[in-house]
Amino acid sequence: MASGLFTIGLVGAWFSSNIGVILLNKYLLSNYGFRFPLFLTMCHMTACSLLSYLVIVWFKMVPMQPIRSRVQFTKIATLSAIFCASVVGGNISLRYLPVSFNQAVGATTPFFTAVLAYLITVQREAWLTYFTLVPVVAGVIIASGGEPSFHLYGFIMCISATAARALKTVLQGILLSSEGEKLNSMNLLLYMAPIAVLLLLPATLIMEPNVLGMTIALARQDVKIVYYLVFNSTLAYFVNLTNFLVTKYTSALTLQVLGNAKGAVAVVVSIMLFRNPVSVTGMLGYTLTVCGVILYSEAKRRSNNLLIG
């Protein structure tokens, strides 16, 4: 009974942090007027750096896994740059696109993962698995045509972020595949986040040169911006922490199923909160994409079971 309640609480925390960070990012970047996605991402990565250190080194929630070589560090730095690009792209897209459409495009991650895995590792899936990707892509095309708030630049950034997220997944499996180099997601974040901060700092200073002055000016008018940034950045870390814990106490498949449900819930909640216009065509496209993702997950699971058997 106690373990069941713990798991339910964990899933609730995962849902809350994932949906919360998406909605708060959208509110800050689009509704509140804090138009600094690079700086916001740097705040996220700074919080991830500090909180990862506290959780692993001080609280010892998971054993610390040291970096064993310069080569391993280079691999982690590469993953960090791609991870950073995916988060920045996602945050920029939220400036221009409603959360509902952002989530529809983000749901195409399996398509990019399958394509990149084939191109980079020549890893082939069963034809049925590839066939299930057709509704994933078709749904986004339909949703794009029926999206009242469609913005080309926002769409490009959202697609780029989705592709970068998939690329990180594929490269992580290749670069950190040996037993001596494998890191759990919490240790990987511990090393990736500070590198991301170092990459984002010069980019922020060049592309958002007035961000500190503007943030201070905003804080003088409304001190809540400070609380928003601190809470939002902390929440970004808890997304990663709960991802790890849900996978640990349930399974990767459970996390995948929850991810599909999370997208649907985020869409409904964002429409209720931000009142962004939606069309029947757009919602049909998004529904088709989600159904395609579910079919893809099931086809891939069956294919893997056949290989194991």
TrEMBL record:
Transmembrane segments: 36-61, 73-94, 100-120, 127-144, 150-167, 188-205, 225-246, 253-274, 280-297
Domain Sugar phosphate transporter: 10-297
Compartment(s): Membrane
One Pfam entry name: TPT
Mode of membrane association: Multi-pass membrane protein
InterPro entries assigned: EmrE-like (IPR037185), Sugar_P_trans_dom (IPR004853), TPT_transporter (IPR050186)
Originating species: Picea sitchensis
Protein name (record): Sugar phosphate transporter domain-containing protein
Keyword line: Membrane, Transmembrane, Transmembrane helix
GO cellular component: membrane
Keyword Lyase part of the UniProt annotation: no
